[in-house]
Each structure stands twice: as C-alpha cells, then as structure tokens.
Design goal:
The protein is mainly alpha-helical. Helix content is about 60%, strand content about 5%. The model is unreliable at about 345-355 (pLDDT under 50).
Length: about 375
Amino acid sequence: MLGTVVAFLVTLVALLWWRSRPRNPPPSPGLALPVVGHLHLFHDNLIDQLDTWRQKLGNIYTLQMGPFRCVMLNGYELISEALLKHHESLLERPNNISHEETFKYAGIISLGGRKWKEQRAFLQSTLRSLGMGRDVMAERVRIEADYLLATIDSFNGQASDISNLVMVCVTNVITGVTFSKRFEQDDKTIVYWLGFVKRIFHLLGSSVIINFFPVLKYLPGDRFHYKELKSIFRQMRAAILEWTEKDKRNINESDEAFEDIVQAFLTEIERKKSQGVTDTSLDDANLLSSVLSLFNAGTETVTNTIVFAVLYMINFPNIQAKLYQEIKDVVGTDRAPDVSENISSSFSRHSSWRPKDLPALSHWV
C-alpha cells in the first residue's frame, strides 16, 4: 500500500516537472536531475566550467540550478543586444532568499517591471539634482580624495594596507549624498558598519546555495551562514533607519534644492500621498531597501576597484607613468580634474581592447 502511494507521488512529481519544461529551450550541458538539476555536473572551478560549456554549446545555453531554470548569455555582442534591445524581457527579479530576507522584495535591486522603472527614474533624477556628473558631486569626491592622499602621504613611504582607508572615503561619498553625513576614520559607527559590509561579502559565496535550496535554511546550526547574514542585514537596516532620521526631516515642498536622497524620497512620498496615489513604489519600505542597496552595491565594489588600481600601478610602473603623463597633458598638476575632462577617452583611443569575452549573464525563467 505505502509503496504504491510513494510510486504514484514520484510519478506525479516527475510528470509535473517534465510538463513544466519549455518546448524549445537552448541546449544544456547534459541530464538535469530532479531536485539538483545540473549541479551534479559542476567542477571545482566554476568560471572554467561555464567557459567550457560556452565553447561546447554556444553563447546561449540553459542551466537547471535546483528548482530554477537559468538561461546563460555570453559574449559582448549578445549581452549588449539583450540589455539594449530586449531589456523589457529582463526586468523581473528571481524570487530568492536574497531578495526576500535582505531587501524584503523592495528597493532598486529587488523590484522588477514598472515599479523598478519608477525607482530607477526617481533615483537617477535625484542624483542628477544632487550633482551626479556635475561639480557638486565632484566636490564630494575631491574632499575624500584629498583626505585619502594626505593620509597616504603621512605614511612616509612605509608599506600600508589602504583598503580600510579607501572604504571609509568611498562610504563617505555615499553617506554624503544619501544622508548628508560624513564620518571620521576612527568613528565607531562607521567602523562597526564597514565590518558588516566586509563580513557580508565574505559569506556570500557559502550562502548562495540557499537561493537554490531554501529548505537548507531550516537545518540545525548555521552551516551556510544564513542566520548570521540575516542578523547582519537586520542590524544594517536598523542603522539606516536611524540615519535617515525620518521624524526629524523637513519635507522640501519647493523642490528647489534637496539636501540628500532621503529628503528627496520623503518629499516624493508625501507628494504621492497628497495626490492620492497608492500604486507606487515610493514608500517607506522602498526608501529603506533602496538606501541599503546603494551601500551594498557601491561600498565594496568601488573600494576593490580603487585598491586594485593602486596595486596594478605599483606593479606596472610603466602604465603608471603613462597615466601620469596623460593627467599632466590634459589637466596639469596645479589643480584637481574637472568632470568635464574625459581623461579616459584619450586613453581609449590608444587602446585596442574590446570586451569580447564578457562573463556569462544569467536570467532566471
């Protein structure tokens, strides 16, 4: 009796799984097993494995990652075409633990479709009004750059790890445009915060499996660091909520000049309420998640880019000399560069590099 019931359930699940498959999917690397999909075919080096499949299957192929089907796009031309000509098909976000627990399905990273467009348009407009690409933003960057260079100069040529220093400077640019705040290097609040950021990026690799197998989060202990990450993000959201100082903010009814993103966001929330608009992503939940997104997307990534740029220039002094000469030719050494001076454009004219071999872009379907 029990055996018959089990056999029936297994057959039913297999049938439903088979019927859910698309009729004409891109090629896949092999047999997708129930539950695990193609994960059983992965080797230790993920990047090499994906590149091997690309060479075998072409620039478009399918991977079954647990219960999720992913279409992998490879190559500069194909990814450009997908993002520029077919972006409407790529607007939605997958339903996974990251979006559920971290951003609560809100904010610029987790939203999709029309609401994502609304968030993007609002943030772009606000950043432009705050000086993105103009002198106001450049001045914020100059302040942190001057502080960074002065601090490095104080090392008197001694070998030093500048990653923390750079990260605080990068964070101050973000907090400046977001909350109108600036922190000193030894401020306990920012030291505590950046510790969270570093820990998050350290744990992401081991926790990503939860996205594909959510049931693992219920296992005893914290083998995949899910509980630790959840705790960190809860504390980060609490810190951002405190920094926004919502109850102390003045709504800018004139719209002539916003102090920061938070003031602009709160003003737009009040405007929507006064107009009776209810179907909007401009609310308190999306304010909190979008600000958290700005920090997570900007702090670690920009810091690593700057630190690696310094590292490469140290190890390749000939490239450093060329960059320095170009700065001398275009800007000079008696003033700071202006945003209107596109130094990289003249460098690109002498470069034959073209991003033909971009890593894969995946879209969950």
